[in-house]
Amino acid sequence: MDDEWICGRLGEDEPWALGAVNPPVFENSLFTFRTAQELGEAIRSEDERYVYWRGTNPTVDLAQRKLAALERGERAKCFGSGMGAISATISSLVKAGDHVLVLGAVYGPTTQFLRYLEKFGVTHTHVNDLAECDSAIRASTRLLYFESPSYMAYAVVDIAEVTAWARERGLVSVMDNTWSTPIFQKPLTMGVDLVVHSLSKYIGGHSDLVGGVVVGPSRLIRPLALTEYQLYGAAMSPHDAAKVIKGLRTLPVRMAAHQERGLAVAEFLTGHPAVRAVNHPGLPSHPGHDLAKRQMAGFSSLFSLVLDTESRQEVGLFLDKLRHFRIGVSWGGFESLVNAPALSTEESVRATMGIPVGLVRLSVGLEPADTLIKDLGLALEGVGRLA
């Protein structure tokens, strides 16, 4: 079963769909049973049985089945946000006194959540590479968390090497795969234990939903679904699940287009006199390019550049001069977006991630590449004069 079939047709021809070309949206908050015994049996397996919206329902379940199949995982659990998935996943794996290793730069709110866990006795250490992991690991370390490509810097991690290291030491590995989507990268096949995504990005694809998912083996997903998912209450709505299903139908086509436009823009920026660096794994000049080609099937259109300036004011002026790139958070939709961590991210988090003042993140959408390149060229004129 290939990815395009999974995205477009998996589970959509079953009897409950009644032949509808778009799978029905089950809006009801609860399901009833013929006997008390049936209700009791369902509640004991509420992660799989339809009892109450907070557990799951057929629309959400179809989205979960598709996402699990795409990632080549046994099971998936969808949440009301990406952070809902991340926080529940981490919480399911640690307890008071445990320690988490964070490899490379990760999503800012993930770091904030790990700091929040400190009041419950869960500590964490940020490291840059496996050599530092060897030095930072403790007897209490339970979890290794990372992204590849990494947050904002888009460094590429050798997934098989990292997960083998974690497995040898009895750690569970969790990886955020939002950047690549399962179309371009399948971490579970390289040894990762659990994969998380923000569904708000490429998978949703239209900037009209907020959601998250965790995918992996049933032995890890089931306890999470019965405990953290239920108790934290970050349930995905059936309407958002329907948007996920609709987004998946065009995901392979959209990712091919994002890749083409993203690389065209990145190539234009490479070597521009106002740009110190371009962080895009698809460029041959990227230090992780060869590794990326071995473990990825393609590249998305989210990357960063570093302006030739140390002035926050000049970074803001560059953003303000853009006309086709809209200023905003998030990414992965049709529209091209720009953001600068120095203007919006907590300085301590930015320092932890090693993000310079001049770093600007671009999310290249599906507009014509020539239009976006012209927009960037005009905005770059004069950058560096305030340095």
TrEMBL record:
Alphabetized UniProt keyword annotations: Pyridoxal phosphate
Matches recorded under InterPro entries: Cys/Met-Metab_PyrdxlP-dep_enz, PyrdxlP-dep_Trfase, PyrdxlP-dep_Trfase_major, PyrdxlP-dep_Trfase_small
Cofactor(s), names only, from the UniProt record: pyridoxal 5'-phosphate
Family designation: Belongs to the trans-sulfuration enzymes family.
Descriptive protein name: Cystathionine beta-lyase
Species: Nonomuraea angiospora
